[in-house]
Amino acid sequence: MKVKVDINDEHDETCITIQAKEWSEELEYIVKMIKSRNTKRLVGVEQDQSILIHPNEIDYVFAENRKVFAAMAQQKVELKMKLYEVESLLKPLHFTRFSKSVIGNLNQILRFELAFNGSLCVHFKSGNKEYVTRNYVAEIKEKLILGGGSYGN
After folding, report:
1. Which three-class secondary structure state does DSSP give residue 7?
2. Which H or E run includes 43?
3. Could you write out the DSSP letters of every residue in 58-123?
4. Considering only Cβ atoms within 10 Å of each terminal Cβ, which end of the chain, N or C, has fewer?
5. Strands of 120-124's sheet, edge to edge?
6. Domain extent listing, the chain
7. Residue 99 near residue 133, CB atoms below 8 Å
8. Which CATH number fits domain 25-145: 3.40.640.10, 1.10.10.10, 3.40.605.10, 2.40.50.1020?
9. pLDDT tens readout for residues 20-44
């Protein structure tokens, strides 16, 4: 793949053009990454106050008792969204499914260890930890170790 950048005072605004023979997963990933730049923050609720959360601060998002929470370093903040809505919003930012009720931030993972039942115990940089169920272990290992052959999907 070739990348050409033309910086010139004559350009009024930034324009991105992609030329390809056919549509591919790689192109889909690139387009999602460009569009995801608009995803700046999520709105969480804590003690009747709305707070802005940058996706990079989130270790994982989980559903519990019909509510969705974002887990960060030392706090958990409720999000007024469904888990699948958060997943589609954060997927281009290297978030992936850990289980039916958890979506994790791959960029915040410090280390992981194999648990006795075939699941993974993921340790985040903040000290938080969460488990990946067996159904998602292979996909996460591929994304972490091999860089993910599916370009972030």
Report:
1. coil
2. strand 42-46
3. -SEEEEETTEEEEE-SS-EEEESS-HHHHHHHHGGGTEEEEETTEEEEGGGEEEEEE-TTS-EEEE
4. N
5. 109-114, 120-124, 129-132
6. 25-145
7. yes
8. 2.40.50.1020
9. 889 888 888 777 777 666 556 889 9
